[in-house]
Amino acid sequence: MNLPISNSDPPIVLIVDDDRFMRSQLKELLEQEHYQVVEVTNGQQCLDLYLQLKPDLVLLDTALPVMDGFTCCAELNALSDIHAAPILMMTALDDVASIEQAFSVGATDYVTKPINGAVFFQRLRRLIYQFRLQQQQALLCQQLQSANQVLKHLVRFDDLTQIANRRWFNEYINQEWRRMRREQTPLSLILCDIDFFKGFNDTYGHQAGDRCLRQVAQVMQSVAKRPSDLVARYGGEEFAIVLPNTTIAGAEEVAARTRTAVKALQISHIKSSVHTSVTLSLGVASLIPDRALSPERLVTLADKALYQAKRRGRDRVVASEAMAVSLKKIC
């Protein structure tokens, strides 16, 4: 059975043998079968050329000057994470000890001298076919991993603002709720709204509205920058910041800095009733997770605080009183 070579480039065979006649004989045989052939005379030359050449197969004699074939084979296998070409070792007929040693240092297979052309090519084709197949599989795995990373990003992140989307927000707040419940530390949440955003879109157009959303998202990311903090687009012009292991006071501080940073953008908003530039209304809530509670309770409290911020004139931070009440009960 003649195994096919898996891609169109002629396979590269690196011959390592100090016997000039043997190298010449092997080269002639291989070139007749349209293989690319490179010759060296000792193990050190093989190592020096191996990573640069990236052969499809190393045809390695056991008895070599400078560095013997067994040592060279072991050194080549030490480079297997970089390029793991098969190693076909050549040894004298019936040299059982050399064959055993060859396999012990990592040879893929062996052939005996004098070379039997039919056996030689059968083994050579099989090894190169398997090697190229493994390369293709490794490439496919790499491409699949890259595709999965892209898919993961698409599933978790908002296309417009490039921050977390509502789906990832829901997963993350549940995840951190469970973690904070185990640790018995507070989980805080900020919900915020761009004030009078509909009027902004109606006045400046949806492209300007999209730019505004992106700028606000970037500012929020720059304020909530701990690895565990999550900034998400909650919906439309609404955003959320999840702050694990953060007290109500700490969350209020983040909210205040976010409000100030957005206002500092000085995005003109002539239709706003509270300021000449874009502003935020923010609601803050914090709870120490408990089995009797759920993340939805935290979202409800933050949402009610946001509603109060809007009722009180917008462009402000309002914190839920639930945490203070909870602490009083504990005390």
Protein model, in words:
- The chain is of the alpha/beta class.
- Helix content is 51%, strand content 18%.
- The protein has helices spanning 20-32, 43-53, 69-78, 96-104, 117-156, 166-183, 197-204, 206-223, 248-264, 295-311, 322-330; strands spanning 12-16, 36-40, 57-61, 87-92, 109-113, 187-194, 230-235, 238-244, 280-287, 317-319.
- It is elongated, with a radius of gyration of 34 Å.
- The relative contact order is 0.09.
Give the name of the CATH architecture of the largest domain.
2-Layer Sandwich
CATH class of the largest domain: Alpha Beta
Instruction: Report the sheet-strand fraction.
Output: 15-25%
Largest sheet: 5 strands, parallel
Distance between the termini: 83 Å
Fold topology:
Layout: E1 12-16, H1 20-32, E2 36-40, H2 43-53, E3 57-61, H3 69-78, E4 87-92, H4 96-104, E5 109-113, H5 117-156, H6 166-183, E6 187-194, H7 197-204, H8 206-223, E7 230-235, E8 238-244, H9 248-264, E9 280-287, H10 295-311, E10 317-319, H11 322-330
Parallel strand pairs: 1-2, 1-3, 3-4, 4-5, 9-10
Antiparallel strand pairs: 6-8, 6-9, 7-8
Helix pairs in contact: 2-3, 7-8, 8-9
Could you give a quick summary of the protein structure above?
The chain has helices at 20-32, 43-53, 69-78, 96-104, 117-156, 166-183, 197-204, 206-223, 248-264, 295-311, 322-330, and strands at 12-16, 36-40, 57-61, 87-92, 109-113, 187-194, 230-235, 238-244, 280-287, 317-319.
